[in-house]
């Protein structure tokens, strides 16, 4: 397996996966003086890449087994501004999984103060890169994903999972 065994004990805890602490890059600050909305997605994507690597579906998996994931759907909520110099960390909850899909909920927090800045709920699909079509995960990968999903099933669900965009009711 592609470096997936390292860190299994962390993945199998009933707690969200925590990314590395990241720093805001100066070119990501927009004319409003805060982090541009596009770069929240960059940080969420970097964090998910860390989890995928631990699950065995990172770059090595793509190279060796011609499998990858694509994002099928994403819902980002921007809750509090992030500024240059703010350290951030992303927690990722594997909300659900099946033979082809991964449902994740990510929270971007200020790494030292702990407040919530943004959330991202995503549906990713497994892709057979040779055919460029959705395909089931291989059994060994599916077992790893299922073990993490089972561990995360015991975690309290954060506010915002499953939210829809709509105008407030009057």
Automatic annotation (TrEMBL):
Q: Which domain of life is it from?
A: Bacteria
**What would you give as a GO molecular function for this chain, any one?**
fatty acyl-CoA hydrolase activity
Q: What is this protein called?
A: (3S)-malyl-CoA thioesterase
